[in-house]
Design brief:
With 191 residues, this protein is an all-alpha fold. It is built from six helices and no strands. It has one domain. Helix 2 crosses helix 3, helix 2 crosses helix 6 and helix 3 runs antiparallel to helix 4. The chain starts with a helix and ends with a helix.
């Protein structure tokens, strides 16, 4: 990364805050569609169609928010390709584990598999493959914290308030993790 690019790279604090609050708002919107439209989506789109729709919403909305943290060759609109591949890999890995193993074990396995797949895509995209373990750990911790705290809030409140609380917690934590990964991935010298 050149000195000019290094200077224009958003700080880690800005990346964490933009990720947390920006992706938190995105997640709240996506989870609102679950809270208010899940039954309709399952009837009209089926299970696969509903999950695919939620994945696309995360990519379209999240890519716009997180793209502001990217400099250089992956700047918007190209960032949508990288983020789309990364989030789709995450969602595919998570769903595969969850539907194969069910609640509990499937959620934990999905969190690690999805996080590793997402980190791998970002590491390749930013030419920071040596950082894949660090990026995976960040995403796994952030994703798991948001998902399981959100799940506890959902179980506590129930109904629409529970689902919206889940979305907010999931988005805040995963968003902060994504902000950190985007910052660290770009900060690494190209390999």
């Amino acid at each position: 990364m050149s000195q000019a690019e290094q200077k224009s790279l958003p700080s880690l604090n800005r990346s964490l805050l933009t990720g947390a609050f920006g992706f938190g708002l995105v997640s709240l919107c996506v989870f609102a569609s679950v809270a208010f439209g899940e039954r309709w989506m399952y009837v009209h789109l089926g299970l696969t169609g509903a999950y695919l729709t939620w994945t696309v919403l995360f990519i379209l909305l999240g890519g716009g928010v997180l793209g502001s943290l990217v400099i250089g060759r992956w700047r918007l609109p190209k960032f949508y390709l990288l983020f789309g591949l990364a989030f789709f890999a995450y969602a595919f890995g998570w769903c595969l584990a969850y539907f194969a193993l069910g609640d509990g074990t499937g959620e934990w396995v999905g969190s690690i598999v999805g996080s590793v797949l997402m980190a791998f895509v970002f590491a390749i995209g930013f030419r920071a493959v040596k950082s894949v373990v660090t990026l995976s750990a960040i995403l796994f911790i952030a994703n798991s914290a948001g998902y399981f705290l959100g799940s506890a809030l959902n179980n506590s409140f129930g109904g629409k308030p529970g689902m919206l609380s889940w979305g907010a917690a999931y988005g805040l934590f995963l968003g902060a993790g994504l902000g950190a990964v985007l910052h660290l991935g770009q900060k690494q010298p190209a390999e």
